[in-house]
Each structure stands twice: as structure tokens, then as C-alpha cells.
Design goal:
Elements lengths: L9 E10 L6 H19 L3 E9 L3 H9 L4 H18 L6 E4 L3 H16 L3 E11 L4 E3 L17 E10 L5 H10 L4 E2 L1 H12 L5 E2 L1 E3 L6 E2 L2 E6 L1 H6 L1 H4 L7 H6 L4 E5 L3 H15 L7 E5 L2 E2 L16 H12 L3 H15 L6 E2 L2 H31 L14 H16 L3 H22 L1 H6 L3 H22 L4 H11 L1 H4 L31 H7 L24 H5 L3 E11 L7 E6 L6 E5 L7 H4 L3 E5 L5 E3 L2 E3 L2 E2 L1 E2 L6 E2 L14
Parallel strand pairs: 1-2, 1-12, 2-3, 7-13, 12-13, 14-15
Antiparallel strand pairs: 4-5, 4-6, 6-8, 9-11, 10-11, 16-17, 16-19, 17-18, 19-22, 20-21, 23-24
The structure holds 5'-O-[(L-methionyl)-sulphamoyl]adenosine (MSP).
Length: 656
């Protein structure tokens, strides 16, 4: 890993480019928040930073999703790209470049690279005989299928027998193994390094790098019958975005210092195909590829659209606003904090509301919030809100600040966000402890003004340092703290070098605002959350069996499915996707249902439709409206049709 005191001044960091078949969710957001945090940290250190992200658009997966929405792929992609950009803005992501693989310049670079590899004999023509998983966009030999399905996602694979081009990955196996051995920082964490090693040692085949031509993919420049395989195209984004092949800009930035990815795209792609292509192009390899773990649901399930259990981070932040009175910016940053603090970066984690709220109360409201909320009123009361001189006796936290700075540097060099935050929280604890021990209220009572000034100076100075250190993790909260300390107005420097004691300018005026973290009543809040966001009740059977398992007829019979007739349909104000439906199921009153159908259906076209309702679903409140069931709809991504009956059946009829 790049040591904390790397001599180079540039820091190039990438996220994967995300498929546009899916709206951004907590998984994509995790990688992007982590990259943003590292980028901000390196900017603070005064390095020149390039942080890139973007979207992966060609490929059958996207083409099929577009077709399901009856849209042209480009139009569909444009729409989802906007959703990604909006999400990044909402999550305080400060990227430098956003690359789309449909950018004409990228298409040219991919074709250039392909031609170059053909010319050098690294790519040759052959015949592909095997399987293809469209959701994973992965070629799979029969030997790797599990029960005839994709070993990664468990879904159906398609048989392919067609002429194709191959890249000589196998030729690089030994060199790669050696490289991994000699550069332990190349693939992190070490458990993932071992996975890649085992994969290579298992025998690396040449990679198929084309598919039969489709309109939506990048064409092979010299062969009309073929398109370039979406993964070769996608990996090239990291080169395009810095001006490959011949730009001065490229020389400045290549190679990346850190490439963050999820563990799912390491072994076949970033850990093997990618470095082999770079070796074939005679380019230096990235310094570190870090593969983080996955967020799963609190029921231990992988998130997927089809299971309807995908978490939207902005939705979580909005719910946190509802239950805590925090501002949206604070709620977003609190979620960023939670994601980076709760789980070691390389491991899987499960999202749960109790865990989030506990962190919010204990770490943010209690530890950090209290430090601020205790100190600023004391300043108002005793020192007329003016920062005093650091007179004799000041500097008590200087050692702790130095220790923390070093610990954070070491942790960030290892991409260990959790350890960095733990270190910062020790400094927060030290600030709180100093207040407890030196009790400024007693010093005031005893007229020990010099000591009083020294303690309050130290604690304020410590908060200043903390605001710098938490900035990469919680940028909006850091700004708010700086605002309250009067640092913004005083124009003090916000650099890593300023993380030292006694740099707080005396004389500045603090401006206490509202408490940043209003405490949350966890028990009450949990009962106010929508059912899906509530924690799993371990005594209840899990609502979603793990993928690939079956349900018994008894389990199925637990569902009460009824025929209903939609008697009213309205848009929900200020909620683009939601409709409020009244559905007659033969009870004395129609059921009120809030359904995410507004994107695809006009309320009028749903009137009098006969639908199937899950009648015994736990009621939930969406946008303040109670939803008393769910109507069945078709669609992997977005609902494309509602399920109806082929004969007229009276409302309330049982569906089996
Ligand atoms: N388009 C490819 C990547 C090409 S990079 C040259 C792709 N895209 S993706 O949209 O499927 O996003 C994959 C990345 O999203 C994962 O590698 C990971 O970074 C992140 N995540 C998606 N779901 C996730 C979780 N549930 N948990 C954590 N991160 C996961 O693969």
C-alpha cells in the first residue's frame, strides 16, 4: 500500500463504473463514499487528487433492461446516469470526472486498444463454446457452472457457440503470480489476494473478448460481425479517463494509486484480466486494488431488485431526518459515518436500523455532539464567545492530537476507515475527559481565569482538529462544526498539516448554532419506520428465503392473496413514483395501497383493473400514508405490468 508519506504528489483513485440497468443503491454508494473519503483525505494532505467514477453502459444486460421499459438503450442509459449523478450529489460525493462508456472518446480508445492488441498478437481469432451469464456479463465454461446456473448470481446462463476473439490471459499467469507475490499491496485485503492467487493457480484460460455484434455494444474496428466484450470496454475506462494513449495528462496520472471495487468483480476481472491487459500494453499496474465486502440485508440476504430488498441510501437518510429532526445533510453524513465505521472495509456487513441509530446516538450525538454542546455554551457564559489566548497551562491535548494524527495516517494508508474513525473517537473522548476533569464551571467559580482559558482553549482547539479529521468522512458536518467555531469566518486553514495543537487563532468569535445531532428515541423511532426498514425479528421466519432455496406449501399458504378491483387511483404529491390506490377486496371498506407504479402507469389506466393483492402484508406507512397490502406486478427492474385475472372474478376471491 502507498505509505502515508508517499513522495509522489498525485493521487488517482477510481470506483468501478456502474451498470445502468440498476438505480444507484447502498452497494454502489458504499464504494463511492469510500472513494470520496479517501479522495478528500488526500486533498487535505495537499496532494493533487483525481477521483473518477462513471457508468458502464453497453452490454446485453442494459439493452434488455431498456427493452423491458420499451426504451431505446441510449435514452434509458441517459435517464439512469442522471439518477447516479443525483445520488452522488445527495451523498456529498465530490468526484473530479464522471466517465460514460458511451462517450465517443471512450469508444475510440477502446477500439484503439483492441487494434493494438490484435496487431501485437495478444488478441487472436477463435471459436467460443460455452456459457454466458447476462446479469454478470461473464463467460463461463461448463466446468464452472453450479447446478447448471451461474456460480456468482445463481441465475440462468445461455449457451454460446460462436466465432470470437480471445486475449492471451493465460500467457500472463506466471508473471501475475510473481507480481502479486512481490507486491503484497497490489491486491488487498490479503484474503482477497489469496482468492486471486488460487484462481490463477487453478489454470487461467484465455479470455473471450468479443461477442456477436449488437447495435448497442462497441464494434470491433476490423470486423463487422463482432462487438467488444463489455468487460474489456469497461476496464478501459480507467485509461480513457486520464487521456490514454498519448496525452501528457496520462503521464501525469498513470497508474492509479487506489482502485476500489466490490469483492464480486475481483478474481475474473480486476485481479486477472485487467492487470494482464496492462502488462500486454506495457503499462505499470495500479498500486492497490482494494476489494471490499458486500452489504447484505439484516436478514442475511443479498440485495436484489427482484426481491425488493434493495436499500436506497438517500431514503435511509430521509427516514433518519423524519425520526431525529437532524438536517438532511447531517443525516446523509451520519449514514456515511455508519457505513465506514460499522464494518471493517474488507468484510461483509448487514444494514440494520438499531445499529444505525445506536451509532447515531452513542458516537455522534453523545460523544461528538456533547463535546461541542458542552463547550460552546461555556464559551458564551464565561468568555463572551471569544477564543482566548493559549496562555500558561494550555496544550494538554497536544500529545493526544499527535498520536491521533499518526494513527489516522496509518489507518488511511491501509484503507482502514474503521480504525481511522476509532482513533478520532479517542481524541473526542480525550476532549470530553479534559472537560470532566478540569471542570471549567468550578474554575470559574473559584475565579481561576487563566486555567479556565487554558482548558477552554485546549478543548476548542481539539474540536478544530477533529473537524479537519472527520471532514473526509462527514464533510457537511465538519463544515457545520467549523461554522459554529467561527473558523469559516476567520478563514483558518483546513489542511492535514493543521492537525496540530495550538493552531486555533485567539480572538475569533464562536457562533453556537442548534445542536447538530438531536438524540433519537430508538424504541419509538423503530416503531415509526416502514416495515421493510425495520429490524428482522429473529423469532419470525425470514421473509425472503435465501436465493436458490424452496418454500414449502405451508409457507406459501401463509400469504393471503385476493382478487381486488382498483376503485380509485391518485398520484402521491411530491413523490414521482408513487400512486395511492383504493382497492375493493370485498371487505366493508376498500384497502388503501401505496404502490411504486407512477413512473409506468397513468392513474386513469388502472381504474377498474382487476388485480391480485397480498392482503395480509404487515401495513406500513409510506410518505405518511398507510399502505395496507401490496398488489402484484411484473418486472425485474421497474414494474412493467400489473398481474390481473383472465376471467372476471368477484373482489375478494382467493388466489391459490
Ligand atoms: N459495470 C461493472 C463494473 C465495471 S468496472 C470496470 C459492475 N457494475 S455494478 O453496477 O454491478 O456495480 C458493481 C459494484 O457495485 C461492485 O463491485 C461494488 O463495488 C458495488 N456493489 C454493488 N452491490 C453491492 C453490495 N450489496 N454491497 C457492496 N457493494 C456492492 O459490476
Amino acid at each position: 500500500m502507498a505509505p502515508a508519506n508517499r513522495s509522489t504528489e498525485t493521487f488517482y483513485i477510481t470506483t468501478p463504473i456502474y451498470y445502468v440497468n440498476d438505480r444507484p443503491h447502498i452497494g454502489h454508494s458504499y464504494t463511492t463514499i469510500a472513494a470520496d473519503c479517501l479522495a478528500r483525505y488526500h486533498r487535505l494532505r495537499g496532494e493533487q487528487v483525481l477521483f473518477t467514477t462513471g457508468t458502464d453502459e453497453p452490454g446485453q444486460k442494459v439493452a434488455r433492461s431498456a427493452a423491458a421499459r420499451d426504451m431505446a438503450p441510449q435514452e434509458f442509459a441517459d435517464e439512469v446516469v442522471e439518477a447516479f449523478k443525483l445520488m452522488w450529489e445527495r451523498l456529498h460525493i465530490d468526484y473530479d470526472r464522471f466517465i460514460r462508456t458511451t462517450d465517443p472518446n471512450h469508444v475510440k480508445v477502446v477500439q484503439h486498444l483492441f487494434r493494438r492488441l490484435v496487431d501485437s498478437g495478444e488478441i487472436y481469432v477463435g471459436q467460443y463454446q460455452g456459457w454466458y451469464c447476462v446479469p454478470c456479463e461473464t463467460y463461463l465454461p461448463a466446468s464452472e457452472l453450479q447446478d447448471g446456473a451461474c456460480p456468482q448470481c445463481g441465475r440462468q446462463v445461455e449457451e454460446v457457440a460462436e466465432p470470437a476473439y480471445f486475449f492471451r490471459t493465460s500467457q500472463y499467469a506466471d508473471r501475475l503470480l510473481r507480481y502479486i507475490e512481490e507486491h503484497p499491496e497490489f491486491i488487498m485485503p490479503s484474503s482477497r489476494r489469496n482468492e486471486v492467487r488460487t484462481f490463477i493457480e487453478g489454470g487461467m484460460r484465455d479470455a473471450c473478448v468479443t461477442r456477436a455484434r449488437t447495435e448497442w455494444d462497441i464494434p470491433v474496428p476490423t470486423d463487422d460481425s463482432q462487438s467488444i466484450y463489455v468487460w474489456l470496454d469497461a476496464l478501459t475506462n480507467y485509461l480513457t479517463v486520464v487521456g490514454y494513449p498519448d496525452d501528457q495528462y496520462f503521464q501525469t496520472w498513470w497508474p492509479p494509486q487506489v482502485q476500489l471495487i466490490g469483492k464480486d468483480i475481483l478474481t475474473r476481472f480486476h485481479g486477472t484480466l485487467w492487470p494482464a491487459v496492462l502488462m500486454a500494453l506495457d503499462l505499470p499496474l495500479p498500486e492497490t486494488i482494494f476489494a471490499h465486502g458486500w452489504w447484505i440485508t439484516d436478514e442475511g440476504d443479498k440485495m436484489s431488485k427482484s426481491k425488493g430488498n434493495v436499500l436506497d441510501p438517500y431514503e435511509i437518510a430521509r427516514q433518519l431526518v423524519n425520526i431525529s429532526d437532524a438536517t438532511t445533510a447531517v443525516a446523509v453524513d451520519s449514514l456515511r459515518y455508519f457505513l465506514l465505521r460499522e464494518v471493517p472495509f474488507g468484510l461483509d456487513g448487514s444494514f440494520s436500523w438499531p445499529a444505525l441509530l445506536t451509532r447515531f446516538n452513542a458516537d455522534l450525538a453523545n460523544d461528538l455532539g456533547n463535546l461541542l454542546n458542552r463547550t460552546l455554551p461555556l464559551m458564551e457564559r464565561y468568555l463572551d464567545s471569544r477564543v482566548p489566548q493559549p496562555g500558561p497551562g494550555a496544550g494538554e491535548l497536544a500529545d493526544q492530537i499527535d498520536i491521533t494524527r499518526t494513527a489516522v495516517e496509518e489507518a488511511m494508508a491501509q484503507i482502514d476507515f474503521r480504525a481511522a474513525l476509532e482513533a478520532i473517537w479517542q481524541l473526542i473522548a480525550a476532549g470530553n475527559k479534559l472537560l470532566d476533569e478540569r471542570a471549567p464551571w468550578n474554575l470559574y467559580k473559584d475565579a481561576k481565569l487563566v486555567e479556565l482559558e487554558a482548558v477552554l482553549y485546549d478543548v476548542l482547539d481539539c474540536i478544530r482538529v477533529i473537524a479537519i479529521m472527520i471532514g473526509p468522512f462527514m464533510p457537511a458536518i465538519a463544515d457545520e462544526i467549523r461554522e459554529q467555531l467561527g473558523l469559516e469566518a476567520a478563514g483558518t486553514s483546513q489542511t492535514w498539516a493543521a492537525c496540530q495543537a495550538q493552531q486555533l487563532p485567539p480572538g475569533i468569535h464562536i457562533r453556537r448554532g442548534k445542536p447538530i445531532f438531536p438524540r433519537v428515541d430508538v424504541k419509538r423511532s423503530l416503531s415509526r419506520l416502514p416495515a421493510r426498514a425495520k429490524p428482522a425479528d429473529n423469532d419470525q421466519p425470514s421473509a425472503q428465503p435465501p436465493a436458490g432455496t424452496t418454500v414449502t406449501i405451508d409457507q406459501f399458504n401463509q400469504l393471503e392473496l385476493k382478487v381486488g378491483v382498483i376503485v380509485e387511483a391518485h398520484r402521491v404529491p411530491a413523490a414521482d413514483k408513487l400512486l395511492r390506490l383504493l382497492v375493493d377486496i370485498g371487505e366493508d371498506q376498500p384497502r388503501q395501497i401505496v404502490a411504486g407504479l407512477a413512473d409506468q402507469f397513468n392513474p386513469r389506466e388502472l381504474l377498474n383493473q382487476r388485480v391480485i393483492l397480498v392482503a395480509n402484508l404487515e401495513p406500513t406507512t409510506i410518505r405518511g400514508i398507510e399502505s395496507q397490502g401490496m398488489i402484484l406486478a411484473v418486472g425485474d427492474e421497474e414494474p412493467i405490468a400489473v398481474v390481473t385475472t383472465n376471467r372476471e372474478c368477484p373482489p375478494g376471491s382467493t388466489v391459490r
